[in-house]
Amino acid sequence: MSKKSYNIALLPGDGTGPEVLREGIKALTAAASSYKFSVNFTSYDLGGERYLKTGETLPDSVIEEVKKTDSIFLGAIGHPDVKPGILEVGILLKMRFALDQYINLRPVKLYPGVETPLKDKGPADIDFVVVRENTGGIYTGVGGAVQVGTPHEIATQVMVYSRPVVERCIRYAYEYTRKRNRRKQLTLVHKTNVLTYAGDLWNRVFREVGNAHYPDIRQDYNHVDACNMWFVKSPEFYDVIVTENLFGDIITDLGAMIQGGLGIAAGGNINPEGVSMFEPMGGSAPKYTNQNSINPLAAICAAGMMLETLGESEAANAIDKAVSDTLASGKIKSLAAGKMGIGTTQVGDLVASKL
Ligand code: IPM
Ligand code: MN
Fold first, then answer.
1. Atom number of ligand 1 nearest to Cα 252
2. Closest CA to 203 of 161, 231, 156, 253
3. Which residue, 281, 267, 306, is CA-closest to 69?
4. What is the per-residue pLDDT across 61-92, written as a single tens digit (0 to 9) for each?
5. Do domains 1-110+264-355 and 116-259 have the same CATH topology?
6. Using one digit for the tens of pLDDT, what is the confidence trace for 125-137?
7. Which residue's CA is minimally distant from atom 5 of ligand 1?
């Protein structure tokens, strides 16, 4: 049963983050009043500006506070004056680890009326979900370098996986596939032909869990390189994909492009037993800041994913339909920033008016 009041932490962040988040909040608020629950927001100032002023990225006190909320809504992190890596590692990855958000959920869905770069493919062909493992693998940070700067320098960055970390991700993916109830097909994506240790662990857990508990789900496997190829050639082939962290990072950027680009791509950093964080995939897009020209649909879709995860499925479906209807109306010329033909706030108003 769903709780009727939700406390949501807002992390507007940098660049266009606050603008797109505002439209996401508009959708959340509209959905809340139609579906009879309430949402309370607390905003936290994190990002490049704060880092440049105070040297802080994600203070422990903020982690403790957001742990007590029901969900986190992130705009964008990234600042042209901050060296790449500092904010990504110091805020985004730190949050994923601290809150054990071990699933990165990335729907790849082409809405009607949206242009895809794939020739002869339409909404019926592009509708799948990637379940990316979100805390392990190369992102764990295990590795090192010796003799740095010498001709013999050695560096390692290790793809670390324990059985429990693999298993909880695989189980989530099977459950998700069953609940999605579309083609009931789960594809493991890895590189078992080369990664004979880590790939073998993933493959065995995938088969064991599936055979023992999910006889209703069809098991399928693709090497990650071939998966990229199929995304372009036959995306209709996929229902749900489960994969390790770095492979998931790479294939979901391609996924974002075939669904119409970063203007519409949303993701969730999910701890199924804890506090999750939802975000538009696009970055802070500094040059579009305060132009009222950035596309807020990805943030609105992220708001829908948040409601689904909180158990407000009807409201989540309503947001999805409102986005779909808005796109089908033809009022948005292009999903690209600066080319929509209408403003950021107008797009948000259109969606909210359908809720
Ligand atoms: C993503 C991003 C992050 C990642 C970066 C910003 C650390 O690319 O969420 O996909 O690599 O996971
Ligand atoms: Mn990425």
1. 10
2. 161
3. 306
4. 999 999 999 999 999 999 999 999 999 999 99
5. yes
6. 999 999 999 999 9
7. 88
Query: Which of ligand 1's atoms lies nearest the C-alpha of 267?
Result: 9
Q: 211 CA to middle of ligand 2, Å? A: 31
What single DSSP character describes residue 4? S
167 lines ligand 1 (CB under 6 A): no
Which one of the ligands is nearest to 13 CA?
Answer: 1
328: three-class secondary structure by DSSP: helix
Would you identify the CATH topology of the domain 116-259? Isopropylmalate Dehydrogenase (3.40.718)
Q: Which residue shows structure tokens 């990855």?
A: 93
**Over the chain, what is the mean pLDDT?**
97
Distance 249 CA to ligand 1 centre (A): 7
pLDDT category of residue 152 using cuts at 50, 70 and 90: very high
Evaluate whether 96 touches 269 at the Cβ level (below 8 Å). Answer: yes
Ligand 1 lined by 246 (C-beta under 6 Å):
no
Mean pLDDT of the region 167-195 = 98
**CA-to-CA distance for 270 and 51, rounded, in angstroms?**
26
* Token pair for 146: 């010796």
Annotated domain spans of the chain:
1-110+264-355, 116-259
The class of domain 1-110+264-355 in CATH terms is: alpha beta
List, for residues 244-281, the tens digit of each pLDDT value.
Answer: 999 999 999 999 999 999 999 999 999 999 999 999 99
Q: Is the shortest distance between the CB of 88 and ligand 1 below 6 Å?
A: yes
Could you tell me if the CB of 89 is within 6 A of ligand 1?
no
Q: Which of 89, 92, 140, 270 to mutate to test the pocket of ligand 1 (most atoms within 8 A of CB)?
A: 92
**Percent of the residues in the chain that have a pLDDT greater than 90, as a whole number:** 99
